[in-house]
């Protein structure tokens, strides 16, 4: 590290005194950043900037963001002031030419992810030769509700502009002048996050489902990521904990989402040299969740970075809740070192320990988490290591449950990714659609669970349709479809009523999608609950099916493209515009850099930029 810093100082002095100025270096690096090699050059220039201090770094990026009109001025300023110092810290701590830098360039959209760093996850015991089998005795299933990505906007304002220029609307923004063209109704809009009353309506509907318990796969806070702070997030977390507590009549097993912290996504590793910490998130949730999980588990939330494990009351099912944001590419704290850190904050180790405890006790287990380990935004390394764990404990894990994508979908794990078929399919991840109407009609899932195997026998998706005339006054929650009815009907040879909707079932569903395009397009419609549905054909279809078969992210067929963030939906719909499509990161720093490097600058923009940056950097240097 010191070596590279020294080179940097030398280069910097050279560039300030002798050759062209840093301003020219930065502008030319941005202009010329078109591929992976030139992205590293850009990071070299940005590293020089970061060495001048956070303030100059932020001001420079804000200036570029505003000049290129990547997002509204206040959004540029807010996002960069929140997240810029983390990136500057990263750049001062790593080599601009190393693998961590390549990973940063992957977030910007200019490098493919580097190959997986080989690492063998240690297990306390070898897999049993005669694993315990879990057989259904045909008892009536019990119900579990799964809801996710509620993204409640406590500043939602009825009557505010729906058609705004920011990542989320239906708020009073200071720079929004002129008459309102589309006023927000009280219950929500597709351009906005969730009003409190809509979340309450959903919880009241959940309460009627006679559930044994619910799982909530995270993201409480809205996506106004340029404004969030610790006080707001803490307040939002506490409010929703209280609402769940008041309105639901059975336990809730929650997880930590990437919006549960401020700045958004920013969970530092425990190896970080920065004094900043997200301990306040774990303290808040440990306290808020103690009513549903026992004191041992509440202690784990506090001391194990938000993860916990608990046996659901009255069952033989161990629920293992993992904070997967330490495997998330948009967590900019994960780029602060060149040192190989296979298991940030011990999340993988905790999963192994708890799965071993379940195996030893003859229990079944569910893994629940916010970010699925399978997407384009999951690090290939940690996804690969997690997949090793899934494969080791495949007889114990009955199912996995995730959120984060905002879409109604699923993902399959295999014992052999080179030979994907119904026999090698051995783990299933259920991904819940979002409550926030920003990504489609608000929805949640109700599972029928076999009480012997804890496998899913059926899933009903319930939605509330924003186009329904009564939605704004009295939203209703109706069954959109049953997974067994809809997909059981397309599986070759049918699916026996006694069999769960396991990984083999879902593999056969994907096989049916290949040949039965009507069924595939119906699935595409379900993903966003009938909103903004575009036909997905050709590459889109191939990539989507590939993604469904890729619990191990290195197999997901996502290729990085300049200017297009790596979320699957972006690839599918080719929506490259800001805001309403960038579901989870919420137009963060990765988006801004992605846009910055993918635009062709006009002569006018170039000269404005040169002028502005000369003022920012020239003064300081
Ligand atoms: C939304 O705003 C854009 C730009 O301000 C405008 O062109 C468009 O007509 C508006 N849409 C509606 C439905 O008012
Ligand atoms: C909490 O539950 C776990 C799992 O069932 C158990 O091992 C632990 O002893 C419990 N803790 C307390 C304080 O009851
Ligand atoms: C970080 O967390 C891991 C896993 O819990 C632990 O083993 C390690 O000692 C911690 N490191 C520091 C510096 O706290
Ligand atoms: C930028 O310019 C290049 C070369 O002239 C062209 O191939 C590319 O399509 C342009 N990109 C955009 C986003 O306009």
UniProtKB/TrEMBL annotation:
It is found in: Secreted. CDD domains: MPP_ASMase. One of its GO terms (biological process) is ceramide biosynthetic process. Keywords: Disulfide bond, Glycoprotein, Glycosidase, Hydrolase, Metal-binding, Secreted, Signal, Zinc. Zn(2+) 2 binds at residues 219, 258, 370, 404. GO terms for molecular function: hydrolase activity, acting on glycosyl bonds; metal ion binding; sphingomyelin phosphodiesterase activity. Its cofactor is Zn(2+). The keyword Disulfide bond applies. Binds 2 Zn(2+) ions per subunit. Gene3D superfamilies: 3.60.21.10. SUPFAM superfamilies: Metallo-dependent phosphatases, Saposin. It comes from the Eukaryota. Residues 1-20 form the signal peptide. Converts sphingomyelin to ceramide. This is Sphingomyelin phosphodiesterase. It comes from Crucibulum laeve.
């Amino acid at each position: 590290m010191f070596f590279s810093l020294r080179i940097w100082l030398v280069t910097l002095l050279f560039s300030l005194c002798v050759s062209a100025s840093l301003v020219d270096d930065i502008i030319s690096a941005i202009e010329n950043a078109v591929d992976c090699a030139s992205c590293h050059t850009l990071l070299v220039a940005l590293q020089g900037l970061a060495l001048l201090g956070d303030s100059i770094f932020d001001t420079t990026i804000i200036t570029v963001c505003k000049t290129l009109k990547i997002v509204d001025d206040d959004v540029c300023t807010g996002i960069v002031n929140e997240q810029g110092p983390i990136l500057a810290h990263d750049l001062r701590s790593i080599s601009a030419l190393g693998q961590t830098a390549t990973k940063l360039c992957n977030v910007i959209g200019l490098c493919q992810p580097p190959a997986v760093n080989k690492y063998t996850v240690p297990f306390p015991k070898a897999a049993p030769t005669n694993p315990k089998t879990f057989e259904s005795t045909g008892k009536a299933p019990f119900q579990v509700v799964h809801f996710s990505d509620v993204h409640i906007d406590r500043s939602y304002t009825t009557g505010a502009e729906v058609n705004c220029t920011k990542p989320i609307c239906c708020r009073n923004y200071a720079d929004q002048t002129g008459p309102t063209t589309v006023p927000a109704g009280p219950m929500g809009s597709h351009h906005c996050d969730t009003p409190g009353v809509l979340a309450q309506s959903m919880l009241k509907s959940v309460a009627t489902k006679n559930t044994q318990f619910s799982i909530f796969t995270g993201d409480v806070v809205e996506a106004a990521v340029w404004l969030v702070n610790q006080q707001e997030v803490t307040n939002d977390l506490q409010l929703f904990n209280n609402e769940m507590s008041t309105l639901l009549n059975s336990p809730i097993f929650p997880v930590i989402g990437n919006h549960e912290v401020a700045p958004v996504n920013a969970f530092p590793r425990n190896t970080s040299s920065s004094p900043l910490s997200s301990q306040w998130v774990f303290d808040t949730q440990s306290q808020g969740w103690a009513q549903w999980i026992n004191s041992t588990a509440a202690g784990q939330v506090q001391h194990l970075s938000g993860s916990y494990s608990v046996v659901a009351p009255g069952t033989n099912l161990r629920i293992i809740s993992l904070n997967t944001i330490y495997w998330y590419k948009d967590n900019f704290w994960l780029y602060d070192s060149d040192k190989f850190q296979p298991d940030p904050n011990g999340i993988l180790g905790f999963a192994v320990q708890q799965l071993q405890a379940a195996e030893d006790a003859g229990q079944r287990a569910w893994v629940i988490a916010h970010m699925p380990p399978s997407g384009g935004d999951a690090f290939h390394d940690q996804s690969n290591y997690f997949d090793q764990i899934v494969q080791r404990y495949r007889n114990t894990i009955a199912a996995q449950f995730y959120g984060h994508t905002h879409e109604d979908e699923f993902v399959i794990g295999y014992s052999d990714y080179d030979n994907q078929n119904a026999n090698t399919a051995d783990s299933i991840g259920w991904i819940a659609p979002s409550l926030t109407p920003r990504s489609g009609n608000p929805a949640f899932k109700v599972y029928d669970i076999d009480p012997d195997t804890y496998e899913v026998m059926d899933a009903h998706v319930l939605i509330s349709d924003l186009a329904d005339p009564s939605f704004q006054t009295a939203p209703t929650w109706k069954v959109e479809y049953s997974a067994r009815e809809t997909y059981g009907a397309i599986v070759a040879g049918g699916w026996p009523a006694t069999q769960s909707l396991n990984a083999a079932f879902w593999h056969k569903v994907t096989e049916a999608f290949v040949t039965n395009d009507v069924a595939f397009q119906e699935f595409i419609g379900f993903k966003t609950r009938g909103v903004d549905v575009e036909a997905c054909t050709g590459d889109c279809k191939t990539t989507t099916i590939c993604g469904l078969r890729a619990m191990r992210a290195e197999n997901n067929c996502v290729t990085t493209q300049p200017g297009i963030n790596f979320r699957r939906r972006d690839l599918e719909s080719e929506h490259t515009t800001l805001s309403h499509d960038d579901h989870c990161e919420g137009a963060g720093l990765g988006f801004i850099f992605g846009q910055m490097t993918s635009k062709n600058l006009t002569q006018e923009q170039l000269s404005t930029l040169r002028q502005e940056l000369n003022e920012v950097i020239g003064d300081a240097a």
